[in-house]
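[job 4471] stage=fold_predict status=RUNNING
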Amino acid sequence: MTNNESTDLALLESRVDELIKTLGELQSENVALRNQQENLVNERATLIEKTEQARTRIESMISRLRAMETRT
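[job 4471] inference complete, writing C-alpha cells
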C-alpha cells in the first residue's frame, strides 16, 4: 500500500467515525424529540379536557342565571 492509499484510507476511516458519531447524536436527539412530542400531546389533551370542563361549568352557571332572571 502506498503512502497516498494509506492517507486516503485514514481519511475515509476518520469520516466513517465522524458519521457514526453524528448518527448516534441524531438518534439521541430523535428520542428526546419524540419524548417531548409525547409530553406535549399529553399536555394538550389535558388542557382540552380542562377547557371542556370549564366550558360545561360556565354553561351551567349561565343557565342557572337565566333561570333566576326569569323567576324574578
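[job 4471] summary: The first helix runs from residue 3 to 71.
[job 4471] exit 0
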